[in-house]
Structures
1.
Amino acid sequence: MPLNRIRIVLVQPSHGGNIGGCARAMKNMGLTRLLLVAPEDFPGEEASARAAGADDVLARAQVCATLDEAIADCHLVIGASARERRIAWPMLAPDEAARRVLAAVNGQEVAVLFGRERTGLTNDELDRCQALVNIPANPEFSSLNLACAVQVLAYEIRCAAEAGVAAAPAGAAAMLGEPLATSAEIQRFYQHLDQVMVASGFLDPANPRLLTRRIRRLFNRIEMTSNEVNILRGILAAVTQPVVKTKS
Ligand code: SAH
């Protein structure tokens, strides 16, 4: 069942009750894979109480120290965001996001990220997402409770599954028949590119403006394969030798 493979990732949730509520929302919709990045209150009584009958989802929840650990092998990462951002990022409606998740989940590892109750996801975390999803809401009161946001998106994913969204619309990378790059490979590429931009004088680390985010947005849009990332890193290594020593 593809729904079992979709990761729901909660980044630093502070209330155990919300974690339990998310587990219940997920299980109601047939999702089971919960990852918790540095949760403040887990495991605990609040989480178990709010999970009601979804204790099995909680028991199998994977706790990770960092977001990168939770999504290292993911090919598609979508972030749930309540807010407009300074730099426009591809923004999906819940049903579009659900279709994209389901289309990918057959051959790829997919994660949907949710942020902290008070402050949401940081820009650094959003930079790891290929797209964001926003749940339309009252503009004067647009931030849903964490478990409610998980419920809405889990519901949309279930609807898409029941509507039979399955075969991925063959994107360019899928047609090449090559594995897509993982989040970890892409993050290493960005670090490498940042080093080269700084070493060449193109990027002033004291005044990066929005340059690094724009670069990430560009590459996050295009579904790079592992091979393509390796080629780009090979070019970076070749043009900078011996100026920059890169770590691989
Ligand atoms: N005050 C925070 C929102 C925290 S709500 C902020 O301004 O960012 C906790 C999490 O629930 C958010 O990080 C987001 O992942 C999800 N969420 C809440 N409301 C949402 C909405 N309208 N659309 C998409 N995700 C939402």
2.
Amino acid sequence: MSGKKQSKIQEFEYKAEMKQLLNLIVHSLYTHPEIFLRELISNASDALSKVRFSQLTENSAEDEGEELKITITIDEKEKTFVIEDNGTGMSEEELIANLGTVAKSGTLGFLQAMKEQQSDKEGMDANLIGQFGVGFYSVFMVTDEVTVETRAEGSPGCRWCSTGEGTYTIEKIDREKRGTKIAFTLKEDAAEFAEAFRVENIVRKYSNFVDFPIYLDNKRVNSITALWQQPKNELKEEEVNEFYKFISVDYQDPLDYLHLSLEGVVNFKALLFLPKEAPMDMLYQQGALENHGPQLYVRKVMIQHECKDLLPEYLRFVKGVVETEDLPLNVSREVVQNSPVMAKIRQILTTKIIGWFESLAQDHQEKFRQFYKAFGPVVKIGLNTDFTNREKLIELLRFESTETQEDEYVTLKEYTGKMKEDQKEIYYLSGDNRQQMLSNPNLEYFRKNGIEVLLLTDPVDVFVIPSINEYDKKPLKSIEKADIDFKAEKDAEKDALGKNMIEPVLRIFKETLGDKVEDVVESGRLVNSPVTLVGSKDAVDPQIEKMMRMMKQADVTAKKILEINPSHPVIKNLAGLCVLDQNDPIIKATVNQLYEGALLLEGSLEGKADFVSRMNEIIEAATRQAKA
Ligand code: ADP
């Protein structure tokens, strides 16, 4: 500082949330102090990107000659750390806005997550910090006091100082250069960050792909940029994996990657990744994919960090970079959105990505399984939104079935390939889990006759599968519907009650259950169970009904049809009792019990207490007889 001017030091107080955040950082985030460096470099890189962008778009005279770079200077003896960039810098107002308040919802989100994890601070990992971008303040993990000197184009220089304890000061300074310099002395227990070897490693680990050179004590330490520009055969797996982690802030390697270099109607290069796992919110939060997408570069400049227009929503979990020469640099979001170039890129990318999935399914089945498990539910959205690729998406579908083991899948093609000659329909059953589905009485006929039934466990399925209607000219049908054509079996018929015996039983059921059911009919599908409930031809899937009930949309339970098994001993006994004494109270109790038992299996029995007390009465009666 020249000292010629009378400089006025102003003191400011942090907002309450800010104090809270700083307090957390200083006292709780001690597990990954090295993160501070990634955050500072990332801020510097952003500031440099802005300069590069305006140089290219505005033809501005902003010292084009000077290399855009980040420099780190450390002193092991003095334990000092300085990081400087010649990016945009900040004016006084920007300093107050950016470093004095919690302006971003991301940071507030971080605070929230921290609060929720209070008891588990160790679990707060580097990944989470990165996602929420605590950013600049993470520096207080390694120092007690920070000085930021900065100057934006057309504004005077400023010095900002803070100990991170409630207040900060700002004073005007003479600063020639545009850009920002952040300086501090390391705390005793953070002295390692003044060691060149350690710092170089951290830069390599987190910031190797930063698009500007990073110098440490005048030596360049980051090496690789723009991997997507390299020819496919020169890509090294390790580098590609590191690049993925860098751009996606994932701690795991990607499941797979795809390199594209297209020339033709549009020209672009892309390096795309499939993560190994889907973030929870992606599957269960509506609109979670709204603002996702790969990074968009135009002529080496990043235009959008998450460009949602590059991919249809159902593919936006794909991460990576797309670079094209065919868009103008100074594009606004609206222009990008509506540009025919963008539409073309999106169309080609979609086709290529689906082709990528197909080749995984073909040649890397294990990878495909993992992919399908993680993102299948998301991809299925495409069936109802992308009619151009619908057929291909249908081929990608996988299902567990009564013929597969748990976690093994069949495709619709495989299913129809195995169908018996006289089977005209593709059968499915939906439910929460495999075990529960396998005990569904509606499966008995199919299992006995070796007819494969698809088991739909993904909650999305019941919305998607019925919309397929038919595959290979064969209709898809829920086995819980009444309109299935069962071929009555000779064996079963032999033991079954004759018509004159079954009629009174059906009547008793109808009288006893009254309005609770739509109808009571003789069943062709039961083998081991006495009764089952099915939906009428036009009923919604029971899984959808259940979901609607959970969402408290009352009154959605459509009446069911109760089917009874004329070969089952209980039904036969009932027929016998009807002949002996129609008014025997055990008949009514049994009918109610059978009905509620079917509800219980379906997961929709409400008054469980009644069910149990009636069961006790029946047991009592049964044991009384045994004694006599
Ligand atoms: P984030 O980087 O996630 O926005 P930070 O707390 O790290 O959050 O930074 C807050 C803001 O301060 C940034 O968005 C940016 O506007 C500004 N800033 C931080 N470091 C720099 C820098 N080196 N150059 C210019 N602006 C910066």
3.
Amino acid sequence: MKTLLLKAENTADIKKAAEILRNGGLVAIPTETVYGLAANAFDGDAAAAIFAAKGRPQDNPLIVHVSSFEEIPPLVKEVDPRLKALAEKFWPGPLTVITPKSQLIPDAVSGGLDTVGIRMPSHPTAQAIIKEAGVPLAAPSANASGRPSPTSAQHVAEDMDGRIDAIVDGGKSDVGVESTIITLATTPPTLLRPGGITPEQLEEVLGEIQISHAVFEQLAEGEKVQSPGMKYKHYSPAAQVTIIKGSFEQYKNFLLAQKDEVCAVCFCGEGKNFTKAIEYGAENDSFSQAKGFFDALREVDALGCKRAFVRCPASSGIGLAVYNRLLRSAAFREIDLDIKIPVIGLTGQTGAGKSTVSAMLAERGFLVSDADILARRAVENREVISLLCREFGDDVIKDGVLDRRELARRAFATPEGSQALNLITHPEITRLAVEDIHAAHSLGKKAAVLDAALLFESCLESLCDLKISVVADEETRLERIMKRDSISREDALLRMKAQKPEQYYIEKSDIVINNNNGSDLNTQIENITDKF
Ligand code: TXA
Ligand code: MG
């Protein structure tokens, strides 16, 4: 299919778009929030074509767009006075109201639900096209399902060229995030999706409202939802996204300490500190962040970055909408760098006795977090698993669980494979480590210890205030490994050879603990613990 490119300022083009829509076609139209992929809302087949073009799950209903209040009564079971009150205050504008539907709304539009979401957009082009078409328009955001929502005709073309009849170019969307969704079908009404109209504004009209927990939290697997759209992974670029909380200084130090390439998605004026950066709005201006956010996510892919670390926006006002979209694009992965407890990195060659030292530190009031355990937990994360499947093939999953042996076989076959595995797992490992560090603080521990054989090769190093290596003579380590793992001298030697030399650890550490047989470990450890 050839997709026509139409211009909002051409009256003939508006007429053309309306004609396509009346004839059951699909047209992407500009709205003040994001671009919508429109079809005649009374035409079930046309609505079905939207799902096909977007690759959207069938149970995820579409919003019906009108240009005046008079168009509403036939669409709903009855006109709720609260709908009228909301309309008077916020329409035309970025608000969708859900209310019981009439028979005229096809199941394909409502996703089989007995309610319908209605919105009156304020964008003059959207208004003109609805009027000219003479029918209400069912329209989801005009992105391919799962991708960031489109805020320009260019974004729509990236996802939809060749799949729909036409795109009407009306410039950049003004708000930049989708409408606020409130349902009147619950008591009190429930905010299902934050957007341009804030909870406070809604309460002025409706009195008490509740905010769906799905606004902030990941749904449990199989959980029943009020808004089917909440179930799906959303707004995601191909790159893996992680949210970073804390000051700019903390963000900067953390990003600059990353061993692999990352893209900084930050606020205006901050980008110059990084090799790859995209600024998505001004730090204290949620409106500018809303406007730039989806564009920034698409830009991450355009720059060819595999990982993006995003500065966390303030979550008040329209900032709540930005934060909600960011949480979904990051599969809810947040790292809070505002760490309130000292962090000790503990490492050393195999057989040097790192575990003995970490056990002694645990006994003395330190919380020890073991990187091997974190790495195992990281690959239990749903999003990490799906990224691993994309990288290494779907068959690293057997009977619904990750086959770690098969994954290791594929990943460690090449240096590129190992690097790809690290890129995918490190942000989640870091998140888990930081979670342990915060837990150590809440538990009143003196410090958190990150026990990691690959401390200096991993991103964990950047979290540490003090780095300690445990060393022991080669012969001592050899004997310990043979005994611990019941292996031959040759095999033990092979393992030792695969590691970095002792000097590497010594040079990178603040403190070196000597753990040969007969060394006084107690005194060495007390010298450290005395500092905390
Ligand atoms: O700003 C917007 O709302 C944009 C523009 C194009 O108007 N549209 C938009 O549509 O964002 P969409 O389909 O991408 O998101 C609509 C969300 C979905 O999560 C869907 O599950 C939910 O609204 N929704 C629609 N009708 C619903 C209903 N009857 N009950 C519960 N949720 C509903
Ligand atoms: Mg959408």
